[in-house]
Amino acid sequence: MSGASSSNANGVRRKTAGTKEQDLINTMFLEEEEQEGQETSTINVTAESSNNDKADDNDVSISVIAVLSAQRSSSSFLARDILAQMDECHVNLNEVLAPSAMQSGDAWAIEANHLGFAHLPITQVDPDLLAQFVLQVGRRKCRETLLLFHSNNTTTTTHNNCHNHCWIVYKHFDTHLALWQHSLFLKSMIQQLQRDVESSLPITRVHDTRFVMAILERHAEERWRSKWYARHHKDWDTHGTPQHRQQVDLAQDVPPMAEEFAFAHDQWYQLIRGFAAAAAHDRVRVLELTYENITQAPIPVTQALVRQAAGGAVMIN
């Protein structure tokens, strides 16, 4: 492999990407994610509904579960099929940081447009503004969810059980932001949620935890093989089924993992674990999950882990 050498933070010298390997990584991992994360909101709203994010007597309070992961780690299965079954007061924002409507629904057409950055590359957007964007989308979707519950339930039991509160789940990948943006974005999210706690009505303070960092990691080489297999064999399984895992393991056409991909994987997880260690406190909880937790453990077991991490604030139906 051709390319210059560079040193990482530990002084380990690594080669920078040679042309062939870098082209391979770009082709596999920097393409638009048209196959992944296709679950989007089915609720149609107008832009007018997003323009009022000020607190009032009917405003909502939100807590956030950030699924900090990477592509081909079964994060979709975690967010959509496991977490969505935990709490009736739940909203899945999917890949809200991805501008494509396939991943983020109407968020960029409404909130990003209202905040004035929908036309910009996300790497040029201030992390504080991005945090505001995600929380605004979450509050709007929460209002819509509670309103939907209210319209479908004449006794409003479900609405009342939510206490004007929703758990917001979103997926956060290394590829969503520039490296420098991630920590600043997460810090701003936590700070803005803390201000929400301090200004909220007493009834919403029963939810002790406001931010859960669910760090989901799959071995880098398994991710590499899964992505290659999915792209070349059109098998975008998001549930980690035994049949899919076996087919990926038996595939003979997968090239060796690029060194730069392994480095990027390690760099990403070191970054978010470092942030988690510094940020963890009473209202920020950290949960480590593996690919095996998601694909092999019974769903109630994984749900119980998340509930424990959230201090019991996430309800199990």
Layout of helices and strands, plus pairs?
Elements: E1 5-7, E2 13-15, H1 19-29, E3 61-69, H2 75-82, E4 90-94, H3 101-104, H4 107-115, H5 127-152, H6 157-161, E5 165-173, H7 179-199, E6 211-217, H8 220-233, H9 242-250, H10 259-279, E7 284-290, H11 291-295, H12 299-309
Parallel strand pairs: 3-5, 3-6, 4-5, 6-7
Antiparallel strand pairs: 1-2
* Rounded average pLDDT: 75
Distance N to C terminus: 53 Å
Question: Unreliable stretches, pLDDT < 50, 5 or more residues?
Answer: 1-19, 24-58, 154-158, 202-206, 313-317
* Helix coverage percent: 40-55%
Structural class: alpha/beta
Q: Give the H and E element order.
A: EEHEHEHHHHEHEHHHEHH
Keywords:
alpha/beta; globular; 317 residues; P-loop_NTPase; 7 strands; Rossmann fold; disordered C terminus
Short characterization:
The chain has helices spanning 19-29, 75-82, 101-104, 107-115, 127-152, 157-161, 179-199, 220-233, 242-250, 259-279, 291-295, 299-309, and strands at residues 5-7, 13-15, 61-69, 90-94, 165-173, 211-217, 284-290. With 317 residues, the protein is an alpha/beta fold. Strand 1 (5-7) and strand 2 (13-15) form a beta hairpin.
